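Here is one chain, start to finish.
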Amino acid sequence: MESICVIVPIYNEEEAIPKFPQEFSEYFELSSLSASVLLVNDGSTDASLDLIEKLCLEDSRFHFISLEKNSGLSSALKAGFDYAKTDWVGYIDADLQTKPTDFLKFEPYLDHFDLVLGDRSASRKDSLVKKLSSRIANSFRDFMLHDGVNDSGCPLKILRRDLAVSIPFFKGMHRFIPALVLMNGGKVKQVPIAHFPRVTGKSKFNLWNRMLSPLQDTFAVRWMTKRNITYKISSFDILNQQNKSL
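Its structure:
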């Protein structure tokens, strides 16, 4: 059986953490993969770390790492991808506006795709400002990068772990995972999912980091995709064939 580790970046989400066992229970029960959860504490200043440690002691399916200081969502994801040793890595936000059970919709596609991600477009339960800024950013990103994805920043993804650790990482990269997977020769699939209002904690995003900063980052990703080097070896000598490397 293949395995998956679901990465949950956490920054000051003390109200949400006690809900995790119940929220993940159905996914654990029904998943075709051997599933576990890695909680990545991103330098929380509330009681999040204490609650994370308590949860991991009580439920062996949950594990955690804690970053020395608040480093941002992309850094927390990078740390989680590096730390996981499973065949697949998942990603879900701690606010649980998306649900772990929707990962079940992704699993039938894993034989044919390297990244499967959600599309919240039809059911998004956010403020008008958040919806509008995301729509503008997504439209501009697709225009520049041609990744064919409606909701690149959707916080529900399953990705081959070996590919996850090979793609470039930088601040804000979590919004560009589909484009970076495509740049590395991967195949991407979108699946419509449900989206729910935030009922705990506060959003960590504002107009700058939701729209203006991503627009700047898009130019950097476009530069990378245009300058990306790819090659395929067509033949090699007998020594290399025997030793696999020189």
